[in-house]
Design brief:
about 350 residues, 14 helices, 10 strands, about 20% strand, rod-shaped
Length: about 350
Amino acid sequence: MRGTSGEYFDWKKFMILNRRNLGLVVTLALAGGILLSVLFYLKESVWGATETYRSAYLYHITFDREQVDNIHDYYNDYTWNDVLDSDKIAGVAAGMLGDFTKEEIGKATTIPTMSDIRFIWVYAEDETPENATRIQEAVAEALAQFGDETEGFAGIEIWDKREVKAVEEPFFWGRTVTAGFVLCLLLGVFVIFYKNAMDDSVYTEEDVACCLGTEAAGTVFAAKDKDVVSESLTGNLAVLLQGKEKVCVLPAYEDAEFTVDLQIWKKILPGKEVFTASTPKEAGTDVGLVWLVPYGRKDGRRLMQEWKNLQIRSRKADAVVIVDADKNFYRLYYGKGKKK
């Protein structure tokens, strides 16, 4: 966790605590990317799909020989698409058809990339093949008129006609899966960082120093572990409890799941009369006091409050010990070769 002063982000602790979550997030992000892609495909191709038909005509352009160089420089596929949307083409075609506006004609017609400025393909698309053909025929007349009336052109004529076919829009699975994966991954990472920001648990002895402003004497691991105490604990307690015949091991707060195993503490403190209590008042004043801090219980703010209450009541803890800790976490965090 992060303390009340000198805050820092412990990347090593973060990565160890979330090592399984990070792998899970990547797996779920991949699954989420695939799922979102499938849903998007169904939306575009099945549920909300409307058939679109395309009429494709190839037009041959004859330029005025006297102005051919200037016209070559000016007319390209970008220019022709603008021309299609203009009053001279879309406007004229709309006037011929009567049931389409200039804007609808412009939206329905496109010119793909040109490889030869003497030839242009014009695509006319609509939800019915009949209307696609009607729009194309009207555009053909408008283009022929444009070629006859516009300076620099000798004429524009139909060179080839393709059969009206349904448009098959490609679905880019790779792109949609990647986009879905990145979106889900970012969401998963955000959730992990949010949970980390909300987690004020005590995990390490350094966390005790940040949270309480005092050093921890050591750690007692969960009962499932073979070696239940950190190597430094016994020696530190011997120094801190020197001259104390009776020792009270006091939980930081009362909790049904936070219990004290006196058998373990009698082994940790041989030769001492060890007992437990519910409150500092029950513990008495002429005894050594070991304050027990639970590991990973998301209770940092509560621990700070209980520690402050202990100080206010003029009761000093001789030692602070983390209990029920995960030994595997400690092994990864401090390293196998470092003695704790």
